[in-house]
Amino acid sequence: MALPVDNTSPDNLSLDNKFHPFPSPAKLNLFLHVVGRRSDGYHELQTLFQFLDYGDTLEIKATDCGKIRLLTPITGVAAKDNLIVKAATMLQLEAQALGQANLPGAEIKIDKILPMGGGLGGGSSNAATVLLALNALWQLKLSTEKLAALGLALGADVPVFIHGFAAYAEGVGEKLTPRDPEEYWYLVSKPNCSISTVSVFTSDDLPRNTDRQLAQSADIDACHNDCQVMVIKHYPEVAKLLSWLLEYAPSQMTGTGACIFSRFDSKAEACRIQAQLPDGIESFVAKGINQSPLIPVIKALSLN
Ligand SMILES: C[C@](O)(CO)[C@H](O)COP(=O)(O)OP(=O)(O)OC[C@H]1O[C@@H](n2ccc(N)nc2=O)[C@H](O)[C@@H]1O
Ligand SMILES: Nc1ncnc2c1ncn2[C@@H]1O[C@H](COP(=O)(O)OP(=O)(O)OP(=O)(O)O)[C@@H](O)[C@H]1O
């Protein structure tokens, strides 16, 4: 006689009924060159990514109810537009395609400390953390390459967070070559303005023809951020803060702004300048790191 089929739990779901913490670090673009524009409007970049030992924390619990629930909404971002929910929903479809009997679900909380629209890649990092974490919790066993390809549809910065190594990036930021830049201390300061990535990439003032270079020969000190030219012209808050910071340390914008990172040899020196920042400037001090703190957490979970 055939045994009754238990459909209450998806095949491989790890239901330990507890929240697991996962880091979701920030990134810096140590340089960012715009080297061309594709026919679909996206820009071809050459950029050097490094992570910071600073970022959001997500707590994720696998469930078998088929629902994705974000228990801590982010002010100003509707749940359906939140990259956390989008990433989880995208992975549910993959679970379905793998033939799991029931749709897996998840409850997710976020402690959001990264400024939004700051060029630190917070939204992309959150999406990457969800993809890697749920791949492990739902035991889907999708490859890193597959997760990076899925993540690219959510944002150009997602693949580097999935791979988790500092990298020289080309294409729209998805063709990655591992690099090992010096791990300096950074003071990251946010001018009092938010800059949308789209507005920078659609501006007539964005330089789009920086000479292409070879990945192996990219010299960080000879490089710059092409977006900074446009942003300084249109956002006086950024221009003012950048010229203040340049008095103390090499300083440059990350991504499409508005955050500026200033480089120091020691944490103490970075904190000393932080204490002197003009009133009302949001800031933090963090170390540049060449491996994302998320990767060891995922590896440990996958071994269990
Ligand atoms: C500026 C960087 O942060 C550098 O790391 C990224 O290229 C931006 O990555 P992101 O925030 O994940 O951006 P996406 O959400 O993919 O794209 C937002 C919008 O920016 C424009 N965009 C983005 C990336 C790119 N290489 N070329 C573009 O023209 C497109 O209009 C796109 O619709
Ligand atoms: N989980 C999320 N965290 C942050 N922003 C999100 C999230 N989900 C959706 N968004 C939207 O994405 C926008 C960009 O956020 P994000 O913090 O990634 O910007 P950014 O640091 O400038 O990114 P980038 O460097 O990739 O351009 C936000 O203004 C918000 O509307």
UniProtKB/TrEMBL annotation:
InterPro entries in the cross-refs: GHMP_kinase_C_dom, GHMP_kinase_C_sf, GHMP_kinase_N_dom, IspE, Ribosomal_Su5_D2-typ_SF, Ribsml_uS5_D2-typ_fold_subgr
Residue ranges of coiled coil: none
Domain of life: Bacteria
Keywords, ordered alphabetically: ATP-binding, Isoprene biosynthesis, Kinase, Nucleotide-binding, Transferase
GO biological process, one term: isopentenyl diphosphate biosynthetic process, methylerythritol 4-phosphate pathway
Residue ranges occupied by any GHMP kinase N-terminal domain in the UniProt entry: 82-164
Biological pathway: Isoprenoid biosynthesis; isopentenyl diphosphate biosynthesis via DXP pathway; isopentenyl diphosphate from 1-deoxy-D-xylulose 5-phosphate: step 3/6
Enzyme category, top tier: transferase
Protein name: 4-diphosphocytidyl-2-C-methyl-D-erythritol kinase
Organism whose genome encodes this protein: Thalassomonas actiniarum
